[in-house]
Amino acid sequence: MNSSVRFKLFLMMVLEFFIWGAWLPLIFSYLPSLKFSAGEQAWILNAFPIASIVGMFFSNQFADRNFSAERFLAFSHLVGGLAMLGLGFTKSFWPFFGLMMVHCLLYVPTISITNAIAFANMKDPQKEFGIVRMGGTIGWILAAWPFAFIFVDWNKVKAANPQGLMNTVLSALDNGLSGQALQDATVWTFIVAGIASLVLAAFSLTLPHTPPKPASATASSMAWVDALKLLKQPFVLVLWLVTFVDSFVHNCYFNWTGTFLATKAADGGVGLPGNVIMPVMSIGQIAEILTMFILGFTLKTLGWRTTMIFGILGHAARFAVYSFFPQSAPLIILIQVLHGICYAFFFATVYIFVDEYFPKDIRSSAQGLFNLMILGIGALVANSICPYLAQVVYKSGETINFKGLFLVPLGCSVAAAVALALFFHPPRKTDPSASGTAAPAH
Protein backbone atom coordinates (compact mmCIF):
# COMPACT_ATOMS: atom_id res chain seq x y z
CA MET A 1 0.00 0.00 0.00
CA ASN A 2 1.58 3.29 -1.09
CA SER A 3 1.80 6.28 1.21
CA SER A 4 -0.85 8.29 -0.65
CA VAL A 5 -3.47 5.56 -0.24
CA ARG A 6 -2.48 5.02 3.38
CA PHE A 7 -2.91 8.74 4.13
CA LYS A 8 -6.36 8.79 2.52
CA LEU A 9 -7.46 5.78 4.56
CA PHE A 10 -6.02 7.39 7.68
CA LEU A 11 -7.89 10.66 7.04
CA MET A 12 -11.06 8.70 6.32
CA MET A 13 -10.81 7.19 9.81
CA VAL A 14 -10.10 10.63 11.36
CA LEU A 15 -13.32 12.08 9.95
CA GLU A 16 -15.36 8.92 10.59
CA PHE A 17 -14.73 8.91 14.32
CA PHE A 18 -14.59 12.69 14.73
CA ILE A 19 -18.30 12.69 13.89
CA TRP A 20 -19.18 10.19 16.60
CA GLY A 21 -16.79 11.63 19.18
CA ALA A 22 -18.23 15.13 18.80
CA TRP A 23 -21.79 14.37 19.93
CA LEU A 24 -21.69 11.17 22.02
CA PRO A 25 -19.98 12.11 25.34
CA LEU A 26 -22.36 14.94 26.30
CA ILE A 27 -25.66 13.63 24.97
CA PHE A 28 -26.30 11.66 28.18
CA SER A 29 -26.57 14.91 30.18
CA TYR A 30 -28.03 17.00 27.33
CA LEU A 31 -31.23 15.00 26.83
CA PRO A 32 -32.56 15.56 30.38
CA SER A 33 -32.12 19.31 29.87
CA LEU A 34 -34.66 19.10 27.02
CA LYS A 35 -37.19 17.71 29.54
CA PHE A 36 -37.41 14.37 27.78
CA SER A 37 -38.73 11.54 29.96
CA ALA A 38 -36.49 8.61 30.87
CA GLY A 39 -38.27 6.48 28.28
CA GLU A 40 -37.81 9.11 25.56
CA GLN A 41 -34.14 9.41 26.45
CA ALA A 42 -33.76 5.65 26.16
CA TRP A 43 -35.33 5.64 22.68
CA ILE A 44 -32.94 8.35 21.49
CA LEU A 45 -29.87 6.70 23.00
CA ASN A 46 -30.91 3.35 21.53
CA ALA A 47 -31.22 4.76 18.00
CA PHE A 48 -27.55 3.86 17.52
CA PRO A 49 -27.78 0.20 18.61
CA ILE A 50 -31.10 -0.23 16.80
CA ALA A 51 -29.41 1.05 13.65
CA SER A 52 -26.61 -1.46 14.19
CA ILE A 53 -29.11 -4.31 14.30
CA VAL A 54 -30.97 -3.06 11.21
CA GLY A 55 -27.68 -2.56 9.38
CA MET A 56 -26.76 -6.20 9.95
CA PHE A 57 -29.71 -7.31 7.83
CA PHE A 58 -29.79 -4.52 5.26
CA SER A 59 -27.04 -1.94 4.78
CA ASN A 60 -24.04 -4.25 5.08
CA GLN A 61 -25.43 -6.67 2.52
CA PHE A 62 -25.80 -3.75 0.11
CA ALA A 63 -22.20 -2.76 0.74
CA ASP A 64 -21.04 -6.33 0.13
CA ARG A 65 -22.96 -7.12 -3.00
CA ASN A 66 -24.51 -4.04 -4.64
CA PHE A 67 -22.54 -0.81 -4.28
CA SER A 68 -18.98 0.40 -4.44
CA ALA A 69 -18.00 1.05 -0.83
CA GLU A 70 -16.74 4.60 -1.31
CA ARG A 71 -19.98 5.76 -2.99
CA PHE A 72 -22.07 4.14 -0.28
CA LEU A 73 -19.93 6.03 2.24
CA ALA A 74 -20.45 9.34 0.45
CA PHE A 75 -24.24 8.99 0.26
CA SER A 76 -24.54 7.91 3.89
CA HIS A 77 -22.54 10.85 5.23
CA LEU A 78 -24.32 13.37 3.02
CA VAL A 79 -27.80 12.50 4.28
CA GLY A 80 -26.64 11.57 7.78
CA GLY A 81 -24.73 14.83 8.09
CA LEU A 82 -27.80 16.88 7.22
CA ALA A 83 -29.78 14.97 9.86
CA MET A 84 -27.07 15.64 12.45
CA LEU A 85 -27.13 19.36 11.67
CA GLY A 86 -30.88 19.31 12.26
CA LEU A 87 -30.36 17.96 15.78
CA GLY A 88 -28.65 21.19 16.73
CA PHE A 89 -31.89 23.09 16.09
CA THR A 90 -34.41 20.56 17.44
CA LYS A 91 -35.81 20.43 20.97
CA SER A 92 -39.01 18.38 20.55
CA PHE A 93 -38.89 14.63 21.09
CA TRP A 94 -40.34 13.23 17.87
CA PRO A 95 -38.28 15.42 15.48
CA PHE A 96 -35.18 14.80 17.60
CA PHE A 97 -35.73 11.05 17.67
CA GLY A 98 -36.49 10.95 13.94
CA LEU A 99 -33.36 12.89 12.96
CA MET A 100 -31.21 10.81 15.29
CA MET A 101 -32.61 7.61 13.82
CA VAL A 102 -31.94 8.80 10.26
CA HIS A 103 -28.37 9.73 11.17
CA CYS A 104 -27.69 6.45 12.97
CA LEU A 105 -29.26 4.25 10.28
CA LEU A 106 -26.86 5.81 7.78
CA TYR A 107 -23.81 6.28 10.04
CA VAL A 108 -23.57 2.88 11.74
CA PRO A 109 -23.00 0.87 8.52
CA THR A 110 -20.16 3.22 7.58
CA ILE A 111 -18.10 1.90 10.50
CA SER A 112 -18.02 -1.49 8.81
CA ILE A 113 -17.64 0.10 5.38
CA THR A 114 -14.57 2.10 6.38
CA ASN A 115 -13.03 -1.10 7.77
CA ALA A 116 -13.85 -2.92 4.53
CA ILE A 117 -12.30 -0.14 2.39
CA ALA A 118 -9.18 -0.22 4.54
CA PHE A 119 -8.81 -4.01 4.47
CA ALA A 120 -9.44 -4.13 0.71
CA ASN A 121 -6.47 -1.86 0.11
CA MET A 122 -3.97 -3.49 2.50
CA LYS A 123 -1.37 -6.14 1.77
CA ASP A 124 -0.79 -7.07 5.43
CA PRO A 125 -3.84 -6.17 7.60
CA GLN A 126 -2.21 -7.33 10.86
CA LYS A 127 0.65 -4.89 10.30
CA GLU A 128 -1.17 -2.02 8.61
CA PHE A 129 -4.68 -1.86 10.09
CA GLY A 130 -3.56 -0.62 13.50
CA ILE A 131 -1.83 2.41 11.99
CA VAL A 132 -4.74 3.29 9.69
CA ARG A 133 -7.33 2.78 12.44
CA MET A 134 -5.27 5.08 14.64
CA GLY A 135 -6.75 7.88 12.54
CA GLY A 136 -10.10 7.16 14.16
CA THR A 137 -8.52 7.59 17.58
CA ILE A 138 -7.06 10.95 16.58
CA GLY A 139 -10.42 11.99 15.16
CA TRP A 140 -12.16 11.25 18.47
CA ILE A 141 -9.50 13.26 20.34
CA LEU A 142 -9.78 16.20 17.95
CA ALA A 143 -13.53 16.23 18.54
CA ALA A 144 -13.16 16.43 22.33
CA TRP A 145 -10.44 18.91 23.21
CA PRO A 146 -11.63 22.09 21.45
CA PHE A 147 -14.82 22.00 23.52
CA ALA A 148 -12.71 22.49 26.66
CA PHE A 149 -12.26 26.06 25.41
CA ILE A 150 -15.70 26.45 23.84
CA PHE A 151 -17.66 25.55 26.99
CA VAL A 152 -15.96 28.28 29.04
CA ASP A 153 -17.43 31.18 30.98
CA TRP A 154 -15.16 33.80 29.48
CA ASN A 155 -16.65 36.56 31.63
CA LYS A 156 -15.22 34.81 34.70
CA VAL A 157 -11.88 34.33 32.95
CA LYS A 158 -11.78 38.02 32.07
CA ALA A 159 -12.68 38.97 35.64
CA ALA A 160 -9.84 36.81 36.96
CA ASN A 161 -7.43 38.80 34.75
CA PRO A 162 -4.89 35.97 34.23
CA GLN A 163 -1.42 37.03 33.07
CA GLY A 164 0.25 35.10 30.27
CA LEU A 165 -0.91 32.31 27.96
CA MET A 166 -0.48 29.45 30.43
CA ASN A 167 -2.42 31.23 33.18
CA THR A 168 -5.18 32.06 30.68
CA VAL A 169 -5.43 28.40 29.65
CA LEU A 170 -5.54 27.25 33.27
CA SER A 171 -8.17 29.87 34.10
CA ALA A 172 -10.29 28.75 31.15
CA LEU A 173 -10.12 25.11 32.23
CA ASP A 174 -11.13 26.13 35.74
CA ASN A 175 -14.14 28.20 34.62
CA GLY A 176 -16.23 25.85 32.55
CA LEU A 177 -19.84 26.58 31.72
CA SER A 178 -22.43 24.97 33.95
CA GLY A 179 -26.17 24.62 34.22
CA GLN A 180 -28.34 25.99 31.42
CA ALA A 181 -25.44 27.84 29.79
CA LEU A 182 -23.61 24.54 29.28
CA GLN A 183 -26.73 22.85 27.92
CA ASP A 184 -27.33 25.71 25.49
CA ALA A 185 -23.76 25.45 24.22
CA THR A 186 -24.03 21.67 23.79
CA VAL A 187 -25.98 22.15 20.54
CA TRP A 188 -22.63 22.96 18.94
CA THR A 189 -21.58 19.34 19.33
CA PHE A 190 -24.28 18.35 16.83
CA ILE A 191 -23.47 21.19 14.44
CA VAL A 192 -19.76 20.38 14.43
CA ALA A 193 -20.49 16.67 13.92
CA GLY A 194 -22.85 17.45 11.02
CA ILE A 195 -20.27 19.62 9.25
CA ALA A 196 -17.64 16.88 9.63
CA SER A 197 -20.06 14.36 8.12
CA LEU A 198 -20.58 16.54 5.04
CA VAL A 199 -16.81 16.93 4.66
CA LEU A 200 -16.38 13.14 4.76
CA ALA A 201 -19.15 12.73 2.18
CA ALA A 202 -17.14 14.80 -0.27
CA PHE A 203 -13.81 13.22 0.69
CA SER A 204 -15.21 9.69 0.21
CA LEU A 205 -15.31 10.24 -3.55
CA THR A 206 -11.51 10.54 -3.56
CA LEU A 207 -10.96 7.16 -1.84
CA PRO A 208 -9.66 4.10 -3.73
CA HIS A 209 -12.40 2.42 -5.73
CA THR A 210 -13.69 -0.59 -3.78
CA PRO A 211 -16.20 -2.39 -6.02
CA PRO A 212 -19.04 -4.59 -4.81
CA LYS A 213 -18.31 -8.29 -4.50
CA PRO A 214 -21.03 -10.39 -6.15
CA ALA A 215 -21.85 -13.63 -4.41
CA SER A 216 -20.17 -16.71 -5.84
CA ALA A 217 -22.28 -19.37 -7.52
CA THR A 218 -22.28 -21.47 -4.37
CA ALA A 219 -22.88 -18.65 -1.92
CA SER A 220 -26.15 -17.61 -0.38
CA SER A 221 -27.81 -14.55 -1.89
CA MET A 222 -27.98 -13.11 1.62
CA ALA A 223 -24.49 -12.33 2.88
CA TRP A 224 -25.63 -12.00 6.47
CA VAL A 225 -27.06 -15.53 6.38
CA ASP A 226 -23.63 -16.86 5.39
CA ALA A 227 -22.06 -14.85 8.21
CA LEU A 228 -24.55 -16.22 10.76
CA LYS A 229 -23.78 -19.78 9.64
CA LEU A 230 -20.23 -19.33 10.87
CA LEU A 231 -21.61 -19.13 14.42
CA LYS A 232 -21.99 -22.91 14.22
CA GLN A 233 -18.25 -23.05 14.86
CA PRO A 234 -17.84 -23.06 18.67
CA PHE A 235 -14.84 -20.70 18.74
CA VAL A 236 -16.73 -18.11 16.67
CA LEU A 237 -19.83 -18.39 18.86
CA VAL A 238 -17.77 -18.01 22.04
CA LEU A 239 -16.06 -14.90 20.69
CA TRP A 240 -19.42 -13.46 19.58
CA LEU A 241 -20.93 -13.90 23.06
CA VAL A 242 -17.84 -12.53 24.82
CA THR A 243 -18.02 -9.57 22.46
CA PHE A 244 -21.56 -8.93 23.74
CA VAL A 245 -20.35 -8.80 27.34
CA ASP A 246 -17.41 -6.56 26.49
CA SER A 247 -19.70 -4.23 24.54
CA PHE A 248 -22.07 -4.03 27.52
CA VAL A 249 -19.17 -3.14 29.81
CA HIS A 250 -17.79 -0.62 27.30
CA ASN A 251 -21.16 1.15 27.15
CA CYS A 252 -21.47 1.17 30.94
CA TYR A 253 -18.36 3.35 30.85
CA PHE A 254 -19.97 5.91 28.52
CA ASN A 255 -23.30 5.88 30.36
CA TRP A 256 -21.83 6.53 33.80
CA THR A 257 -18.36 8.08 33.56
CA GLY A 258 -19.49 11.60 32.64
CA THR A 259 -21.83 11.74 35.62
CA PHE A 260 -19.19 10.19 37.89
CA LEU A 261 -16.57 12.75 36.87
CA ALA A 262 -18.95 15.68 37.33
CA THR A 263 -20.45 14.59 40.66
CA LYS A 264 -18.99 16.35 43.69
CA ALA A 265 -16.52 14.41 45.80
CA ALA A 266 -18.81 14.80 48.81
CA ASP A 267 -21.45 12.83 46.90
CA GLY A 268 -19.09 10.02 45.88
CA GLY A 269 -17.86 11.39 42.54
CA VAL A 270 -14.67 13.05 41.32
CA GLY A 271 -15.87 16.67 41.10
CA LEU A 272 -14.18 17.80 37.87
CA PRO A 273 -15.19 21.04 36.07
CA GLY A 274 -17.79 20.44 33.38
CA ASN A 275 -15.67 21.65 30.46
CA VAL A 276 -12.86 19.14 31.09
CA ILE A 277 -15.03 16.02 31.15
CA MET A 278 -14.75 15.39 27.39
CA PRO A 279 -10.96 15.91 27.36
CA VAL A 280 -10.49 13.64 30.38
CA MET A 281 -12.57 10.92 28.73
CA SER A 282 -10.46 11.32 25.59
CA ILE A 283 -7.18 10.62 27.40
CA GLY A 284 -7.85 6.96 26.75
CA GLN A 285 -7.88 7.63 23.02
CA ILE A 286 -4.46 9.32 23.30
CA ALA A 287 -3.12 6.16 24.94
CA GLU A 288 -4.88 4.13 22.23
CA ILE A 289 -2.56 5.67 19.62
CA LEU A 290 0.48 4.00 21.18
CA THR A 291 -1.46 0.78 21.65
CA MET A 292 -2.43 0.72 17.97
CA PHE A 293 1.22 1.12 17.01
CA ILE A 294 2.14 -2.04 18.89
CA LEU A 295 -1.01 -4.03 18.09
CA GLY A 296 0.52 -5.92 15.18
CA PHE A 297 3.57 -6.91 17.25
CA THR A 298 1.34 -7.89 20.17
CA LEU A 299 -0.83 -10.14 18.01
CA LYS A 300 2.17 -11.90 16.53
CA THR A 301 3.76 -12.32 19.97
CA LEU A 302 0.79 -13.16 22.22
CA GLY A 303 -1.80 -14.41 19.72
CA TRP A 304 -5.51 -13.70 19.46
CA ARG A 305 -6.74 -15.05 22.78
CA THR A 306 -4.18 -13.56 25.15
CA THR A 307 -4.34 -10.16 23.45
CA MET A 308 -8.13 -10.06 23.79
CA ILE A 309 -8.03 -11.18 27.43
CA PHE A 310 -5.73 -8.25 28.26
CA GLY A 311 -8.21 -5.97 26.50
CA ILE A 312 -11.13 -7.23 28.60
CA LEU A 313 -9.21 -7.05 31.88
CA GLY A 314 -8.39 -3.41 31.15
CA HIS A 315 -12.06 -2.65 31.82
CA ALA A 316 -11.93 -4.59 35.08
CA ALA A 317 -8.92 -2.61 36.29
CA ARG A 318 -10.50 0.73 35.40
CA PHE A 319 -13.79 -0.02 37.15
CA ALA A 320 -11.90 -1.33 40.18
CA VAL A 321 -10.22 2.08 40.52
CA TYR A 322 -13.59 3.79 40.04
CA SER A 323 -15.11 1.67 42.81
CA PHE A 324 -12.37 1.80 45.43
CA PHE A 325 -10.58 5.12 44.79
CA PRO A 326 -13.36 7.48 43.63
CA GLN A 327 -11.98 10.61 45.31
CA SER A 328 -8.46 10.29 43.92
CA ALA A 329 -8.86 12.58 40.91
CA PRO A 330 -5.26 12.14 39.64
CA LEU A 331 -5.63 8.34 39.72
CA ILE A 332 -9.04 8.48 38.02
CA ILE A 333 -7.59 10.65 35.27
CA LEU A 334 -4.51 8.43 34.91
CA ILE A 335 -6.54 5.23 34.68
CA GLN A 336 -8.18 6.53 31.52
CA VAL A 337 -5.07 5.41 29.65
CA LEU A 338 -6.36 1.85 29.91
CA HIS A 339 -8.86 2.68 27.17
CA GLY A 340 -6.09 2.02 24.65
CA ILE A 341 -5.79 -1.55 25.86
CA CYS A 342 -9.55 -1.97 26.21
CA TYR A 343 -10.29 -0.89 22.63
CA ALA A 344 -7.28 -1.98 20.60
CA PHE A 345 -6.59 -5.27 22.34
CA PHE A 346 -10.19 -6.42 22.09
CA PHE A 347 -12.38 -4.61 19.53
CA ALA A 348 -9.68 -3.86 16.93
CA THR A 349 -8.32 -7.37 17.39
CA VAL A 350 -11.79 -8.80 16.77
CA TYR A 351 -12.03 -6.88 13.48
CA ILE A 352 -8.65 -8.23 12.36
CA PHE A 353 -9.58 -11.76 13.45
CA VAL A 354 -12.76 -11.57 11.36
CA ASP A 355 -10.74 -10.47 8.34
CA GLU A 356 -8.48 -13.49 8.78
CA TYR A 357 -11.10 -16.18 9.28
CA PHE A 358 -14.20 -15.21 7.30
CA PRO A 359 -14.78 -15.90 3.56
CA LYS A 360 -13.88 -12.98 1.32
CA ASP A 361 -17.27 -12.49 -0.33
CA ILE A 362 -19.06 -11.96 3.00
CA ARG A 363 -16.27 -10.29 4.94
CA SER A 364 -18.04 -6.93 5.24
CA SER A 365 -21.17 -8.70 6.51
CA ALA A 366 -19.00 -10.69 8.90
CA GLN A 367 -17.69 -7.40 10.26
CA GLY A 368 -21.33 -6.37 10.58
CA LEU A 369 -22.07 -9.57 12.51
CA PHE A 370 -19.66 -8.52 15.25
CA ASN A 371 -20.74 -4.89 15.00
CA LEU A 372 -24.20 -6.29 15.79
CA MET A 373 -22.80 -7.09 19.24
CA ILE A 374 -20.28 -4.25 19.59
CA LEU A 375 -22.58 -1.44 18.48
CA GLY A 376 -25.99 -3.11 18.58
CA ILE A 377 -27.12 -5.64 21.16
CA GLY A 378 -24.45 -4.82 23.76
CA ALA A 379 -25.15 -1.10 23.54
CA LEU A 380 -28.93 -1.65 23.47
CA VAL A 381 -28.81 -3.66 26.70
CA ALA A 382 -26.46 -1.17 28.36
CA ASN A 383 -28.52 1.88 27.36
CA SER A 384 -31.65 0.16 28.68
CA ILE A 385 -30.22 -1.15 31.96
CA CYS A 386 -27.66 1.52 32.94
CA PRO A 387 -30.17 4.33 33.65
CA TYR A 388 -32.22 1.97 35.83
CA LEU A 389 -29.17 0.77 37.77
CA ALA A 390 -27.89 4.32 38.34
CA GLN A 391 -31.22 5.97 39.12
CA VAL A 392 -33.05 3.21 41.00
CA VAL A 393 -30.94 0.28 42.19
CA TYR A 394 -27.84 2.17 43.31
CA LYS A 395 -29.36 5.54 44.16
CA SER A 396 -30.42 6.72 47.60
CA GLY A 397 -32.06 10.13 47.60
CA GLU A 398 -29.88 12.27 45.34
CA THR A 399 -26.72 10.22 45.90
CA ILE A 400 -25.53 7.39 43.64
CA ASN A 401 -23.63 4.50 45.19
CA PHE A 402 -20.87 4.55 42.57
CA LYS A 403 -18.87 1.81 44.31
CA GLY A 404 -21.66 -0.73 44.00
CA LEU A 405 -22.58 0.52 40.54
CA PHE A 406 -19.11 0.01 39.09
CA LEU A 407 -18.75 -3.45 40.60
CA VAL A 408 -21.35 -4.66 38.06
CA PRO A 409 -19.21 -4.13 34.92
CA LEU A 410 -16.11 -5.14 36.88
CA GLY A 411 -17.62 -8.56 37.56
CA CYS A 412 -18.84 -8.91 33.98
CA SER A 413 -15.34 -8.17 32.65
CA VAL A 414 -13.70 -10.82 34.80
CA ALA A 415 -16.31 -13.42 33.81
CA ALA A 416 -15.82 -12.64 30.09
CA ALA A 417 -12.04 -12.95 30.37
CA VAL A 418 -12.36 -16.33 32.09
CA ALA A 419 -14.80 -17.56 29.42
CA LEU A 420 -12.45 -16.51 26.63
CA ALA A 421 -9.49 -18.20 28.31
CA LEU A 422 -11.36 -21.48 28.76
CA PHE A 423 -13.44 -21.80 25.60
CA PHE A 424 -11.92 -19.77 22.75
CA HIS A 425 -9.77 -22.14 20.68
CA PRO A 426 -9.53 -21.11 17.01
CA PRO A 427 -7.93 -23.61 14.63
CA ARG A 428 -4.33 -23.10 13.60
CA LYS A 429 -5.27 -22.71 9.95
CA THR A 430 -8.27 -21.02 8.39
CA ASP A 431 -10.78 -22.86 6.25
CA PRO A 432 -9.75 -22.97 2.55
CA SER A 433 -12.82 -20.88 1.70
CA ALA A 434 -11.66 -18.10 4.02
CA SER A 435 -8.76 -15.74 3.61
CA GLY A 436 -6.25 -18.56 3.41
CA THR A 437 -3.95 -16.98 5.97
CA ALA A 438 -2.68 -18.98 8.91
CA ALA A 439 -3.47 -17.36 12.25
CA PRO A 440 -1.98 -17.72 15.73
CA ALA A 441 -3.66 -20.38 17.86
CA HIS A 442 -3.21 -18.69 21.24
Number of domains: 1
| Mean pLDDT over all positions | 85
Q: What is the total tally of β strands?
A: 2
CATH T-level fold name: Growth Hormone, Chain: A
CATH class: Mainly Alpha
Helix content: over 70%
Q: Tell me the name of the CATH homologous superfamily.
A: MFS general substrate transporter like domains
Helical segment count? 19
Q: Segments where pLDDT lies below 50 for 5+ residues? A: 430-442
The strand order across the widest sheet is 1-2
Globally, the shape reads: globular
Radius of gyration: 21 Å
- What letter string, H or E per element, gives the SSE order? HHHHHHHHHHHHHHHHHHEEH
How is this fold's topology laid out?
Elements: H1 3-33, H2 38-45, H3 47-57, H4 59-65, H5 69-87, H6 93-120, H7 125-144, H8 147-150, H9 154-160, H10 165-173, H11 179-185, H12 187-204, H13 223-229, H14 234-262, H15 277-324, H16 329-334, H17 339-357, H18 363-393, E1 395-396, E2 399-400, H19 402-423
Antiparallel strand pairs: 1-2
What is the structure about, briefly put?
This protein is an all-alpha fold.
Written account of the structure:
It is a single chain. The chain is mainly alpha-helical. It has a single domain, classed as Growth Hormone, Chain: A. It contains 19 helices and 2 strands. A two-stranded antiparallel ribbon has the order 1-2. α3 packs across α6. The chain is globular, with a radius of gyration of 21 Å.
Task: Provide tags for this entry.
single chain; 442 residues; mainly alpha; Growth Hormone, Chain: A; two-stranded antiparallel sheet; 2 strands; 1% strand; disordered C terminus
